[in-house]
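Message: Study each token:
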Amino acid sequence: MQKKENHLLSSSRVAVEHVLRTLKISRIVAEKYRNRRKRFGLRSDLIARIVNDQAK
């Protein structure tokens, strides 16, 4: 039972880590954000959409 739960948890963790890697490559998470704070949400949403489109 616990082995199956660990397998499910690790498989979902891998997917999340791949997304974080892609966000770091696009440098939105890897560096300090230096633009206007109001646009951070917009930019992060756009990058998230690009990442989701690439995953399909």
Q: What stands out?
A: The chain has one domain: 2-55. The chain has two helices and no strands. Residues 2-55 form one domain. The two ends are 31 Å apart (CA to CA).
